[in-house]
Amino acid sequence: MLRQALLHNEHEPVDNDGFRLRGLGFSRLDAFSDVVFGFALTLLVVSLEVPKNYEELHHLWYGFVPFGISFLLLMLVWYGHYTFFRRFGTHDAGTVWLNGLLLFVILFYVYPLKFLFLSAFGQSEVVMAGDNMREVVLLFAAGLATIYFLFSALYANAYRQRDKLALTPLERMLTRNFIVEEAGTGFVGVLVCLLAAVVPPNRAGMTCLLFMVIGVWKSVMGRRSGRAARRMHAQSEAIQAPADA
Predict the structure, then answer these.
(1) For residue 65, is it within any domain?
(2) Which sequence ranges are marked TM in the entry (predicted)?
(3) Which of 149, 168, 202, 204 could form a disulfide with 134 if both were Cys (CB 3.0 to 4.6 A apart)?
(4) Which positions ≥6 away from 63 have C-beta within 8 Å?
(5) CA-to-CA distance for 66 and 200, rounded, in angstroms?
(6) Mind listing the pLDDT tens digit for each residue in 40-51?
(7) Number of domains in the chain
(8) What does the pLDDT look like over 12-31, one tens digit per residue?
(9) Structural domain contains residue 243
(10) Angle made by CA atoms 179, 14, 97, in degrees to the nearest 5
(11) Which of 171, 15, 179, 157 is CA-nearest to residue 86?
(12) How far is residue 160's CA from residue 153's CA, in Å, rounded to a whole number?
């Protein structure tokens, strides 16, 4: 019994890190969110018209690289959203409004996301230079920062309901780490905004290289969570061993 209180009921579905999956059902909130994500992905499409000749097809093909990168970034946001609701399955007022604000920002974020990568690969009809580049980078970085700060707020709201959700010590630890991880990702976006605002306009695009820090940050936080989870599992096994004996 003590081991179950420390971790989870062995008959409940759990994620790889031991987090119980409370949101395996499909709610109206899930359906609404997926519709918004689907619409956002539609806005990324290079062109809604079928090419009429080889030149148009050739031009469309070059647009698939920035489209693919933008699609991948948006899918990462969707996966973070999917993971949160799969683990907590919360539908309280705080979650609904934070989720609504998150979806609103995502729809806005699509435009600087698409424009930035089309311009980076020379597919935009607008020349990106000087203050134009700075403005797009600022919009992109501010959108990304807001998205991940909202993810952090969603996890903080779930942690506030830890007793109601019956979070185990393991789940509470992981939730605290998720709050820090998502807030740290948002902070990288803030740093890019600050750098893009102070560097010369023609250098603003280079500040996007700082986003590579996000991969390092998430790897560090993932290892930290993994070590803590393994330590808690070891403690539970040590508790269980005398009981079995």
Answers:
(1) yes
(2) 29-48, 60-84, 96-117, 137-157, 178-198, 204-221
(3) 204
(4) 46, 47, 118, 121, 123
(5) 25
(6) 888 877 555 555
(7) 1
(8) 688 777 788 888 888 888 89
(9) no
(10) 40
(11) 15
(12) 10
